[in-house]
């Protein structure tokens, strides 16, 4: 069985309320029985609910990195608060008596074991998994529909530009909204997001000058998307296999949702990776109509900064697991990488955890970029691409964090190059630096999010985390 810690249990919970409720069940003594199987692979118990019959939560660790959670309660959340409470009781060290697995749970385990045995026999016999067949006729029809959608989008943007942003009235804004819906009919979910973002900017009531500037930038992004999207789709039509692009992010911009099997077939999967989360951000993205949970992680062997992201649509948010901060080291058997730039999106299906050590602090610091000039060059190259992430995140080696006579805060590298620290996100962090001790302001690694300010033309950085020799201080977590 893997080591069960409270941090690991928290990472399983669907949301913060489930964490609280699970902990409360344990604290209030709602478990009338706590048991484990003779081999120690299964934890199970009885938890008093609102009815006469107690609920029967269980956690099966026959496959340690893919535990199976079950409960007899009717909750649609997974795992439910009863399973979480059972795990919290185990992590706390409460006694679990050895007992025979209940018959209904044993029957479910037996069925699952037979399925796994069948898969193992097929694998041993060399029976290849049936490749997913692509319906080329349907895919070609979809691509043609996407091209039509891009043409509609282009006509709309040209109309808006000819009319002038400052003269748009309610009729034009309604037309933009209607086109948002049409993009969905043309399989262009990425275009929906970008057009909805434009509509929000044009509908802003306050600071109109800033809104128009941002709307002009957004129109430039949409124009680049139309141009690159059309070229990409035309190229796919000329390809007999209609193969997707595994190198750039254009597929995601066009609305493609990558499957893990696709990433693996494209050589974008690696084994035995260790990840450390350096920062975590959760926010409401109105243009996507989703809540977004985003974690920035370092891959320990390469020093690359990746990100994980979970989108929770408004309608389903209550039923989905809310991602959260993770404060240990995640050992991932198989890591999937998405096409991308400086920060690639990654995914994994299972992981084991271990505590963060001072040795890990040293490994993180060794991967920090020592030359700001080299980092700025890479960031600017990415920002030249209108479809690139406008806010790349980089780990920098800062010799000093200093404040000038005007109250502006800078970080300096060993060569004396400086970068100004400014807030990029709505959740500011720069003001928190004044509360840090001297040991967090000299010879540290700083995880920073870059932003190009249009008015000043300068690159600025928002600090997300600071790492010294002994600890990781997360300003956003």
From TrEMBL:
Membrane listed as a keyword: no
Coiled coil: none
Domain SWIM-type: 55-91
Keyword Zinc: yes
Xref: Pfam families: SWIM
InterPro entries, alphabetized: Znf_SWIM
Region Disordered, residue ranges: 108-134
Keywords: Metal-binding, Zinc, Zinc-finger
Residue spans of biased composition, Basic and acidic residues class: 108-122
Protein name: SWIM-type domain-containing protein
Protein's organism: Paenibacillus cookii
């Amino acid at each position: 069985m893997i080591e069960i810690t409270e941090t690991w249990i928290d990472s399983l919970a669907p949301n913060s309320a489930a964490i609280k409720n699970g902990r409360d069940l344990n604290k209030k003594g709602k478990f009338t029985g706590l048991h484990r199987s003779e081999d120690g692979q299964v934890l199970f118990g009885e938890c008093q609910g609102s009815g006469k019959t107690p609920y029967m939560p269980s956690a099966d660790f026959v496959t340690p990195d893919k535990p199976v959670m079950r409960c007899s309660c009717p909750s649609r959340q997974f795992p439910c608060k009863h399973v979480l409470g059972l795990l919290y009781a185990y992590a706390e060290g409460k006694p679990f008596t050895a007992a025979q697995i209940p018959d209904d749970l044993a029957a479910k385990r037996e069925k699952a074991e037979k399925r796994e045995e069948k898969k193992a026999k097929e694998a041993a016999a060399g029976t290849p998994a049936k490749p997913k067949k692509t319906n080329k006729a349907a895919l070609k029809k979809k691509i043609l529909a996407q091209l039509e959608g891009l043409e509609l989008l282009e006509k709309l943007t040209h109309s808006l530009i000819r009319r002038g942003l400052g003269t748009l009235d309610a009729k034009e804004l309604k037309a933009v909204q209607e086109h948002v819906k049409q993009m969905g009919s043309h399989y262009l979910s990425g275009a929906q997001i970008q057009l909805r973002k434009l509509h929000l900017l044009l509908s802003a009531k306050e600071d109109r000058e800033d809104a128009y500037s941002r709307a002009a930038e957004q129109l430039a992004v949409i124009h680049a998307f139309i141009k690159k999207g059309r070229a990409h789709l035309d190229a796919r039509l000329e390809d007999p296999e209609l193969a997707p692009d595994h190198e750039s992010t254009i597929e995601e911009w066009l609305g493609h949702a990558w499957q893990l099997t696709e990433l693996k077939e494209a050589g974008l999967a690696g084994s035995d990776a260790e990840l450390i989360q350096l920062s975590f951000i959760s926010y409401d993205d109105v243009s996507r109509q989703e809540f977004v949970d985003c974690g920035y992680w370092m891959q320990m062997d390469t020093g690359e900064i990746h990100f994980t992201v979970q989108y929770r649509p408004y309608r389903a948010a209550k039923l989905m697991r809310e991602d959260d901060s993770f404060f240990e080291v995640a050992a991932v058997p198989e890591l999937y990488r998405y096409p991308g730039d400086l920060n690639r999106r990654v995914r994994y299906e299972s992981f084991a955890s271990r505590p963060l050590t001072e040795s890990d602090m040293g490994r993180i610091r060794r991967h920090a970029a020592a030359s700001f000039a080299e980092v700025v060059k890479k960031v600017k190259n990415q920002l030249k691409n209108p479809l690139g992430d406008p806010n790349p995140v980089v780990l920098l080696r800062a010799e000093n964090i200093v404040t000038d006579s005007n109250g502006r805060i800078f970080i300096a590298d060993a060569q004396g190059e400086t970068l100004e620290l400014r807030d990029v996100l709505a959740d500011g962090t720069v003001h928190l630096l004044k509360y840090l001790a001297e040991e967090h302001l000299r010879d540290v690694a700083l995880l920073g999010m870059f932003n190009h300010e249009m008015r000043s033309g300068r690159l600025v950085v928002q600090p997300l985390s600071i790492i010294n020799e002994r600890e990781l201080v997360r300003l956003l977590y």
